[in-house]
């Protein structure tokens, strides 16, 4: 049976989902006496889930480790540095395949969740790696590791769907424990966003109270949210307000140079921004060493950008970028809705249409004058007429009214389902909760970046934008409004005829 189902799958490289839980006894690694990351990885690759108790255990144990780490980690190289993942678990698995976690040092720059549909798997798997290899795996905090962004984007709904709200709240508490930055070999400063006008010496980072929601101002905010300026190389400029994010700052080469000199560092490695080739190098500071590296590790970001992912390898002054492409992943319906709920309104509408046609036909036959002789072609009609004679005419009309009302409701539901994607595409940005099919045509990188710009801003200002741009669903628009949308507002004004009737205005659109 399983072999037959696998044969029917469109993408045979993706295994069938696992609908079972694994008992804690079988998850245990007998050598380390903790959860075996390989078993969990395999289970997650089959879309399996852990139990609530298992998730809570992982959150508790990892938080204890994080609480014992400083805000600023001091790590010896060589090290691999990985940028934003954003819920792309299958790409993360591909990226980590060649690593030996017991030997390799790996630093993650944050943004493990949101935008991708397997954010929970990404974060939980990385926590298990941290617990099993605490001296080799290091997780920094990104701007998306907070309740304000995860409740606005996809992560909160994902966790509620896969577990419950309590698990989500416990995960956001776990976010508050993550370290803020790292120094590799006393030469490379690793952080999610960048530097701050409030930061002169790196030791200041250890004085931050990090065990809280990320604020929208101050040093902690800038470490998570800051970006290199677009015109980064301009001399004698240091910091400016970050208009792109509507929060924090942008920093220029002069500010970075001063920061690196005063802290005897060579370079800054950060994530936070999608790049077409997975990375970006900024103006060199010392001997062909870029002053800033941007590393982004989520290829084909949001299933839309068509960008590459990358990681950075650092070893004793040597910087090496490795690129990789995205791989196929299981399709997930928007808002995690199941296929029955997705198609119910369409199927119901079609069935009710057929039933309504039959009832209407019976009504017509019932009201027609009976004939004593029939042709061969009329035999079927006569049989239906005999059926209609049995039915009471009043009952027939009542049944027709019921089916018509049901059909109308199903039509509204279907239009809502079908137009939800169309409405989002008309917006000037990519919807943050849109799960696209992995086979559809992607935007080119520049178009996707432009449409997605609003999703890079802080959340506070966005409520007003959404409140002022609410659109009426297509199924609820009145006929005159639909006509105006079709012919355009200017033409509609010329065609409109407005009459006053009983203290009310009546608008009529003239026909051509």
From TrEMBL:
Enzyme class: hydrolase
Name of the molecule in the record: Serine/threonine-protein phosphatase
SUPFAM superfamilies per the UniProt record, alphabetical: Metallo-dependent phosphatases (SSF56300)
Enzyme Commission code(s) on record: 3.1.3.16
Protein species of origin: Anncaliia algerae PRA339
GO MF annotations in UniProt: calmodulin-dependent protein phosphatase activity
Domain of life: Eukaryota
GO BP terms, alphabetized: calcineurin-mediated signaling
Enzymatic reactions: O-phospho-L-threonyl-[protein] + H2O = L-threonyl-[protein] + phosphate
UniProt entry tagged with the keyword Lipid biosynthesis: no
